[in-house]
Amino acid sequence: MATLLVHFKTQKIIFLLAIALSALFNFTFFSKLYTFALAEHNYIVALSAPFVLILLYIFAANVLLLFTHRLSFRIGVALLVFISALSSYFMDSFGTIIDKDMLINVLQTDSYEALSLITPKLILYSVLASVCAYWILFKVRIHFRAYTVEMVQKALVALVCFVLIGGVYMSVSKSYSSFFRNHKEMKMYLNPFFPIASFSKLLYAKLKPKPSFQAIATDAKRLSGEKKKLVVFIVGETARAKNFALGGYEAQTNPLLSKREDIVYLQNFSSCGTATAISLPCMFSKFERKAWDSDKEQYENLVDVLMKTGVRIIWRDNNSGKDKNIAKRINDVVHYQGKAFDEALLQDFQTTLAQNYEDTFVVLHQEGSHGPTYFQRYPEKFKTFTPTCDTQDLEKCSQEEIINTYNNTLVYTDYIIHQTLTLLKANEEQYETTLIYVSDHGESLGENGIYLHGLPYMIAPNEQKHVPALFYFSDKEKEKALHVKRKEPFSHDYLFHTIVSLFNIKTSEYKPSLDLLR
After folding, report:
1. In this predicted model, what pLDDT tens digit does every residue of 65-93 receive, in sequence order?
2. Residue 50: phi, psi to the nearest 5?
3. pTM score, two decimals?
4. CATH 3.40.720.10 in the chain, residues?
5. What H or E segment, with its residue span, contains residue 124?
6. Residue 112 pLDDT > 70, yes or no?
7. Which CATH superfamily is domain 221-446+465-473+491-514 in?
8. Helix or strand holding residue 268 (H, E)
């Protein structure tokens, strides 16, 4: 074997790399391609795709490795294999797409949350990837010619592949154009080059100069009434509307709230994103989803506007991803980091509230239904649906077990909301009270082979975007005004303006068209 390896040249390595990347690490890509192509009877794409993909990978590898030589070439090939192996684990196991937003989520994941993703299969993938990388770096023998000769050869091979790909495309352009126009998401499953492109975008976003921090609502004024206002905003985590009994789900996941007649459940509510890193800052922002990007985090948010008008802010956070810097300018903040059950969010509610009598905004940020360790999100007494999936390795569980476990997290959330309403009602002699519950994003539970969340919004299934939203008002006129709209389409875009309105704040930033109560 060692004798054979002596004769390996760089182009042979690149060719074998292209074969390996296509055959071993693109199962999700080919699975989706053949599902779509065969359903549409597009046999030209189905038959030619493997050949074109290998040419594409030879082209891309030569371009990426163009200026590498000897050790840098080995490192480049080893990295491609290692990245491909890890990416394919998440893509094949959960249907995850490694785009810029997903990488932001990864960077913001704490150790507690990261540990919940470690499974025997991930360890196996990591070990095999490490072994392959080690073999490429230290064992395989590659015959390198002069640097300039190698570089020219890579450029020529890349050019030939480009011409061949162009020739194939031109000869069957009708089939390819219609297919990839209808399925633009296919490029997101190309492993490892889409993850590499996504990392490049993230790196650019991190390195480019940040815009200066911008104040908003500088003209904001609050009109104070005789009775102070108490607004509690429960930010749900990973709850999807599809499994809320209040919205018609067949299993009773809202045993307490379903008995109440004083709440308004909005049946058609959409999230700003499909992951906390996007949705949470966006839902507190004055910007709508269509205008949202990471640069908008350099603007003041809802809590800044409330604070500058004299509203007291209390923030209690049990999310393992924390508050995404929204609460960094608030004084009264407590983080539990997902290490307690969500009941901890209420433990000092009455004591803290009694310290001052003033207009108050309370944020309770849940750990909620965050997966894949759904079984860790609720106490044993809330194990309503069985059998359950009591492991983070979802592949060991049936879909019924996964859904049962997830539904138990919603039963617990139902309890948390009910308990919060009880506390609010105990303060209604002093305050005009409002409760808002909205989840940050939804969750996939195996539909079409997709699990968890975080897919790009344009291709994310409805399960990741359609979220539960409910409201309670001590002011029954507000309740009636919203009740008649309960079937209309709303989204996170409405939260900023509705909450500003609830506190009677006048500012040019306020848009009546995005006020749920107008």
Report:
1. 999 999 999 999 999 999 999 899 989 88
2. -60, -40
3. 0.86
4. 221-446+465-473+491-514
5. helix 120-134
6. no
7. Alkaline Phosphatase, subunit A (3.40.720.10)
8. strand 268-270
